[in-house]
Amino acid sequence: MALAGFESLKALIVEDNTHMRSLLRALLNSAGIKDIGEAINGLAGLEILRERKIDLVLTDLAMAPMDGLELTRHVRNDEKSPNPFVPIIMITGHTERYRVEAARDAGVTEFLAKPVTAHNLFARITEILERPRAFVRCESYFGPDRRRQEIENYAGPRRRAEELPDARVG
Amino acid sequence: MPRIRKLASGAQIIAPEAYPQMLSRPEAVRALLNLHSAETAAKAQVAMEAAIPPMRAAILRYVDEMEAAAHDLKKLFAITHEIRGFAETAGLITTGRIAEILCRYMDDMERAGKPLDTTIVTLHASAIARAARAEDDDVRTGEKVAAELAALVARRLAEAR
Known about the structure:
The complex is a heterodimer of chains A (about 170) and B (about 160). Chain A is α/β, with parallel strands linked by helices and about 170 residues long. Chain A has helices spanning about 20-30, 40-50, 70-75, 95-105, 120-130, and strands at about 10-15, 35-40, 55-60, 90, 110-115, 135, 140-145.
């Protein structure tokens, strides 16, 4: 039955571990995503992004010679970036807060902590489809809005963490 | 709501309607239905199960490499990080948890600019190897070992601060 909705979607997996690449490919396949490119580091991923139209990027964080953070910064900020708005899901075992914040500040759309499960991966894709984020462009940042929610009737210049009961690190 | 708003600070807010989306709206609706269907869940389950044997074999190879790299802490950290990355996906819960504790310890000590206690590293490496090589993932025993190692690491990190 042809209902996938993902027929036209082109995904890219950037991951240096062959087993994780295989698993991610198999999970995307199971959801009906068939057109999937693979790269073993950020540099190779960037080349694919320049050569082909890509609609979704899944990237690891720690890779050499270019890691997932640098890849994300290039995608978001390079003058010749083919799609600075492309959704980027960062998948990593590095879940320390400072690394999550670094990923957010680089411009990733979603952060997925290993171990990878189908449920968690599909939840991130669902989030991108159901609630696409606004983008912010300012002097020091271009990427998805790092604030997850708007506060109605708030007109002040600053937002504090304690005023955001359900705020999540983006 | 305008598609592109300019704030007083000069920052621009670009609404989702103003930039190309991953899928068109009709495609996204079908994709969401598909993503949450029982058929997709069953296929994903098969994919996860098929991944386990090669991942377990890979973890055993990493464990051999980890033991061989006992005196090369940078390499040991890199290997432990790989183990932490997919041990739990491979069903090796205890292995993954102990690898997680060791990675956090090594990472925190490096950030604090403090030398590693090689006894702690050796204890964890040994526990990771034993857990990975055990035929069954003995979660209860493993959790006890992981908890004791975590407590040891917490004490050493507190001392280091």
